[in-house]
Design a protein that fits this description.
Hypothetical protein yqbg; Phage_HK97_gp6-like; DNA-packaging protein; 4 helices; mainly alpha
């Protein structure tokens, strides 16, 4: 189960209708996976999922949605907006590894 519902993501992005549901669902899954990888554990392990983590996911979904056509023009962008990493930093388990 996703930490953020499709309906909430669509409301956040002010998307009406169902034409973009599959795409937004894909972005939701990707954003949740990215956030989990960034903090070092699955988002599902945060039970309940804190509101600020949900906001980070929403920001990342919005980012993916807004820049989806930039690849068509050959432009590159960062993988996540600064606000996302700032929110998630307090949930990171490990900042550096000792080579193990």
């Amino acid at each position: 189960m996703s930490a953020v519902s499709l309906d909430l993501a669509k409301a956040h992005m002010k998307v009406d209708g169902t034409a973009e549901d599959e795409l937004i669902s894909l972005y939701l899954e990707a954003a949740q996976t990215w956030c989990g990888n960034y903090i070092g554990k699955p988002i599902a392990d945060l039970d309940p999922v804190p509101a600020d983590v949900k906001i980070a996911i929403l920001k990342l979904v919005s980012f993916y949605y807004e820049v989806r056509s930039l690849a068509t023009y050959g432009l590159s962008v960062d993988m996540a907006p600064q606000g996302v990493t700032s929110i998630l930093d307090s949930y990171r388990e490990k900042w550096f590894t000792d080579g193990e």
